[in-house]
Amino acid sequence: MNRQFTRDTLGRSVDDITGSRRMRRNRKADWTRRMVQENRLTADDLILPIFVVAGENRSEPIEAMPGLFRLSPDLAARKAERAAELGIPAIATFPAIDAELKDNSGSHILNPDNVINQASAAIKKAVPKIGVITDVALDPFTDHGHDGVLRDGEILNDETVAQLTEAALLQAEAGADIIAPSDMMDGRIGAIREALDRNGHQNVGIMSYATKFASAFYGPYREAIGTQGLLKGDKRTYYIDPANSDEAVREAALDVEEGADMIMVKPGLPYLDIIFRLKQTFEMPTFAYQVSGEYSMIKAAAQNGWIDGEKVMMETLLAFKRAGCDGILSYFAEEAAELLQKT
Q1: Which of 79, 102, 266, 299 is catalytic?
Q2: Which InterPro entries does the annotation name (predicted)?
């Protein structure tokens, strides 16, 4: 039976308890909820990462990342056209190259006609107004899976920086609008900035992977770029310990001082606290990378019927905005933008 709760039932009224402050007033209807919403996600917040392979009309499914494919440069350009139609402002490209092109130093990154540069040229030709962001790390190009030159079990910082700097110039010449060094070598932001400026690329930006953590969330990505099983040892001598937040702030501060135009946190969801700290500390464009492991977990759970995939996708993307992100690199970008276009 219905029961009327009165002052006598509760001891005192709810208005007495809350001082007449009722938080649910602003939640009572759709229009009030929309009116007071603090953060919004739009297509402008999304950056679409894509994997590129050599060839023409080539599309290879990535088993560990349901719904995603490695694309040849011509198909990458078509994907960019679709992204532009959805209002996505930029594409981030990552290469998967044949094993015979890989070596200890990742020298194929210095080939002006490698697939990452082919993709940049094809995308800019097809969609001149979309942004192209290129990763300048060596791990897709090395036969050991590390982000740098490996010698006697050690990743050589300065030799790696020299090679990355040369590669960044080639990527800029191929049409990249933003160079995004993900290697975590000391000094690479300053070296790349100086080289770009010296060679007439003052308008090419740098999005620093300022805080890239030694995370377990990268597994599916390594399948996507063909480095699974290659890695000798781990990357803890250059990636940040997941336990350290103060160190992450110091890393970001150095990259800002060296000339980074934007900073990034990778992975995303496990590091929302880092995103918040960096945005509060530096007050500059701050991005997150919702990495392959985050994507694949959501996709797998959705495929098993354990979660509502669309709702979880949108909730996670909104969480990045709430933490302070100006944008998100996400494999969900195209799917999310299509959903936003319908609402």
Answers
A1: 266
A2: ALAD (IPR001731), ALAD_AS (IPR030656), Aldolase_TIM (IPR013785)
